[in-house]
Amino acid sequence: MGLPSQAKQGSEAVKKWGFVAMHAALAAAFMFLLQRFAMNASQESSLLWALTFAVCAAGLAYKQANR
């Protein structure tokens, strides 16, 4: 009896962290491409902005997933 509920909780956790990871990856990719190619920034600067936006997007997605 306990196994299906544990599997359901595990599935929900995977969905939540997948949601967070997807948002972080998309924000990082978007910001890197915007900085590097649209604004002609250096690669180091583009990566730093991408990392910053990825962390912010992950935080926002985590908060949203816990609602």
Rg, rounded, reads: 16 Å
| Number of DSSP helical runs | 2
What is the N-to-C succession of helices and strands?
HH
**Tell me about the biggest sheet?**
none
The helix/strand class is mainly alpha
Q: What is the domain total for the residues?
A: 1
Bulk shape: elongated
Could you characterize the architecture of this molecule?
- The protein is mostly helical and about 70 residues long.
- The protein has one domain (about 1-65).
- The protein is built from two helices and no strands.
- The longest helix is centred in the N-terminal third of the chain and has 37 residues, at about 1-40.
- The protein is elongated, with a radius of gyration of 16 Å.
- Keywords: Membrane, Transmembrane, Transmembrane helix.
Please write out the topology.
Elements: H1 2-38, H2 43-65
Helix pairs in contact: 1-2
Keywords: Membrane, Transmembrane, Transmembrane helix
Transmembrane segments: 17-34, 46-65
